[in-house]
Design brief:
The chain is of the alpha/beta class and about 220 residues long. Helices cover about 30% and strands about 20% of the residues. A 6-stranded mixed sheet has the order 5-4-6-7-8-10, sandwiched between helices. Strands 1-2-3-9 form a 4-stranded parallel sheet, with helices on one face.
Amino acid sequence: MLRNRGFRGIFCASTSFCELTAEDVTDLCVLSCGQYDVKPPFHIIRQNIFESTLELLQRLVQQGCKRILQSLVNHPLPLLDDDSRRAAALLAAEKFKVKIKTAVCQTEAEMLAEFRKFQPDGIAAFHVGQYYALFNAGVNFTNSLKFVLLHKMAEKWGLELGGLVHRNHILGIIASRRMDYMIRHHLTGIQENPELISISPVWYEAQTPLETLKAIV
């Protein structure tokens, strides 16, 4: 169908594209730019999860955290992103001589149980919903408990937490330029030596001190 309609390139953002064979894409340019549970056999442009997570954990350590809970969320399939975050946590714990626990939580109740059991002084949460779950459970956010986001998006009610902002617009620009180059130079099919281009998320400094959030939420 793609060939009949004149398409010459495919941007892959799904695990299913990893199952494409050489025959499927013999005359198509293929570029991977999504999240996967296995490494695709094509050129890849994606977020640099390992280095950015390591930087985030280091920031928590520099703020005095000794016990850090990295709270991830459950996926239907484990993603390579999760492995990168686990690896960053293991390295940070060894490098900075602190305790870091990575928990994959399917529900808010599981996350709260991990929090109460581990008693962290720093939390690296996957998304802002985990902050609301802790807040609604009566967790007292003060200067002694740090909270940052591994995947910062737009928060509600003027809440501005610190965390990593994934630069999807930059990824899109680079992917488009790369695809243009591949089409112009007929770089079709499965590549013998796939390349990886990593886009580092940027750190966003918190605009709302945790101890003042009760007046906002």
